[in-house]
Amino acid sequence: xxxxxxxxxxxxxxxxxxxxxxxxxxxxxxxxxxxxxxxxxxxxxxxxxxxxxxxxxxxxxxxxxxxxxxxxxxxxxxxxxxxxxxxxxxxxxxxxxxxxxxxxxxxxxxxxxxxxxxxxxxxxxxxxxxxxxxxxxxxxxxxxxxxxxxxxxxxxxxxxxxxxxxxxxxxxxxxxxxxxxxxxxxxxxxxxxxxxxxxxxxxxxxxxxxxxxxxxxxxxxxxxxxxxxxxxxxxxxxxxxxxxxxxxxxxxxxxxxxxxxxxxxxxxxxxxxxxxxxxxxxxxxxxxxxxxxxxxxxxxxx
Length: 302
Known about the structure:
By secondary structure, the chain is mainly alpha-helical. It contains 12 helices and 5 strands. The protein has helices at residues 24-37, 46-58, 63-69, 81-91, 127-132, 141-144, 146-162, 173-189, 205-227, 231-240, 247-284, 292-295; strands at residues 70-73, 76-79, 94-102, 106-113, 121-126. The strands form 2 sheets. A 3-stranded antiparallel sheet has the order 3-4-5. A hairpin with a 2-residue loop joins strand 1 and strand 2. Helix 4 packs parallel to helix 7. It is elongated and about 85 Å long.
């Protein structure tokens, strides 16, 4: 069976100097490194870092920009308002997208979409709008930084209204905080359903068999990785497993085996160097059985 090649994942970014992962295994290792750095509070674990990086790739963003401009809050991915405006302008769909008014009481943005026969669109978001939506808290952001938050809300509202194809599914943390509690309250206030007997499933075997096959395949791959003795051999196994559903576990095992192989090679080199040093010392030291006159020529009176 021919090993399937790994698909290149490099997106088109604005910065040609950005270091981008070439495949899923490299992306997972980068996600682990970025999480371990503790520089990106939005990523609470390597999985969240990976999700942020994947979302950034969809939007054509380099890894570092994605990790600083994309957030995971309450299990949902959000973008900053400035990033949304940047995506709109970078898409080329807008002739312009600009703030024409910004005060602690109101923010107004205006834009014109290329080819739109209806012309310019304008949207204003006011402090009263925020109050009506229940966003203004006694010690919240709208009290401390009203102008900035009004601009952010005006940006996202106008952006999704005029450019839904660019910002589909994109929300800011402020908007998610407003949406998610409403979804939760609907679930909590709904009356509990009457108990319903579980339906009898007549053919559960295929699912169990599929899960067992997947588990067995993963176990075989892990065993092959553990038995590998060279880094190229580990790389070949990882490429062969590129279509595994549990690729992250395979990538982690491969990386661990590479480190073990490198550590073993280093230990062997150090042992060989120590043995050579010992041999040199043995050759330089005088023999314990040599005659005294050979070791101390000055006592030779013959």
